[in-house]
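During the reporting period the student researcher (J.K.) took over the structure-prediction task from the postdoctoral fellow and processed the backlog of single-chain submissions. One of the processed entries is reproduced below for the supervisory committee.
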Amino acid sequence: MSEEPSSSHSSNDEPTRNRSWLERLFSNFASEPKSRAELLDIIKGAANNKVVDQEALSIIEGALDVAKLQVREIMIPRSQMVVIKEEETPADFLPKVIESGHSRFPVIGESSDDVKGVLLAKDLLPLVLDGQESFSWKSVLRTANIIPESKRLNVLLKEFRENRYHMALVIDEYGGISGLVTIEDILEEIVGEIEDETDEENEDFIRQVSETDYILKALTPIDEFNTFFNAKLSDDEFDTIGGIITQAFGHMPSRNETVNLNEFTFRVLYSDNRKVHLLRATRSTKTNADS
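J.K. obtained the following structure tokens:
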């Protein structure tokens, strides 16, 4: 008889052990969080108490941030889009497809706003067997998904999943193409930068995304940053942008924290509890005009 309570106790504990970490996290609080800030405080407290790890915390923060962001904030601008013209033959556009390494390409007509559809690189494989003479736009062109710049990222991510497409073309308020966005762009906002086997190890540290905005790796050497922008950031104490930015914050910054340094505003795109990984730099147009 003395063993029965022990067996019962073990059985009662089993559901508790099997509960997800999220259920266990919120079971410790008498009331539900009433704001995003309260929710983050709870989750950060859980991370400090080792209930969740820092990587999970970063992903949760990213998922919450996505609900606030619009497509215009992360899209690839029109100037950096790799497009194929409908008038081009496979001999014309295949080198472009191979060089870019992309899997999807907008196909345009006489103007860049005249979108005919989307070409998937995998649909070009029959050219290897059948030759270019058999190529027909009608057989490979897929419908282009058009969305406004103002669409929320969480809504777009749901559409990507439900409709099983991976890229959308973005239009401005006048109906012109202003850029494109992929499902990978949204996922990178949640989990951080995603690199695959086609990404080069010596990829540029700095990438321009608009007239005044740039994405840069925190490992960007300060001298390379100064050369690129004709800037004068000091490299006396630090070798990289990540180091000088962390010093400017005075603490280890979290995602979306911003700091001003000279004529630049830096926003943290991805960081963990050890270091900053990715930044968005916005250069003051007033400074540019004054200079």
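The committee noted the following: The longest strand covers residues 264-271.
J.K. will present the remaining backlog at the next meeting.
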